Each structure stands twice: as structure tokens, then as C-alpha cells.
Amino acid sequence: DLVVGEEFGSPDSLSGKYYWVIDPIDGTKNFLRGVPTWATLIALMNEKGESVLGVVSAPALSRTWYAKVGSGAFVRFNGTERKISVSRVSQLKDASISYSDLQGWGDRRDKFIALQDKVWRTRGVGDFWSHMLVAEGAVDISVEPQLNLWDMAALDVIVREAGGTYTNIAGIPGPHGGSAIASNGLLHKDFLAELN
What we know:
196 residues
């Protein structure tokens, strides 16, 4: 099988082929510093470049999230498995937002900072966990301004199968856009409008 990842490089052409996307350690800086929010991300992409299967394994958190297109999203915690779904929060003023940090925002940085005064709560959780908290309904929006395919492919299908929306900052669906916004879907359009 073809494999794409930070440590694996990328085949010359992926068009029309199924391939795996692997990030052996998402949250490398956390891992190096002993912060337990790091994970292994694995996704299967179809011939159209869409995530069809995703697994996020966070052993230090005793959690594994997974999803397959058409089958829903799940989390396993300490041997107990449950189906997960996004929140039903429908207004930005009631929203909880998680993000990585304030680096990499470019021209949107001031807009993102201003947006924090318009929502209920913000937290700088970052990396995979922000997006999995959206899939579980604990957070309503997660955003990261600079990412690679291997950072997003597994997260995309899990968020979508939990009932959410996953795009880049420009609003283009999927994990190929260099940035990520995961939301419960109800807040996505308004959040994009505030950033753009």
C-alpha cells in the first residue's frame, strides 16, 4: 500500500489510488516535554483523496477514537466503548473554542483574537485533542491555522462521522487545505465569516 506521512514522504502520484496517511506522533512537542496529549493518527484515503477511515490512539490519555464512513464515530476509554456526537450549540456567543496557539495566523490573527471576546470560552488545547473534543461534543469548534495532511486526515473522518463539519480556514472541505476548522456544523458558517 502507498503510505504518506511526515516521516514517510509522499509517493509521486496519489491520484486515483487508495493510500494510508500516518502521523506516528501528533503532538511531538508535548511528547518531548512529558505532556500526555500526543497520539498516533492513521487514516485511509480513497481514490478521490477523501478520508474514509480514521484512528486516533492516545495511550497516555487511555483513549482511542475511530470512525469509518457510514458507521459513526466512537471513543474507547479504559476498555469502555461509546458512540460520540458533536454538540448542538448554535450561537457563537455560547460556543467553546479550542485552538493550538497564536502562531501561524498571519493576517487573521487580530480577527481570531477579537473573536475570543465574542464566544463563551476559549482554550489552547491544540493538536488532535481539540478536534476529538469537538467530535465528543465537549468543545464546539477547534481551529489550527497551519497543518499538514498527516495532521488532519484521521481527524476529518472522525469529526464528520460524529456529525460535525471539517474544512480549512477558507471553508474548503477535507484535510488537504493546510489548516483546519472542526465544528459541530451549526457554528461553522458564522465562525468562517468572523475569520474571513
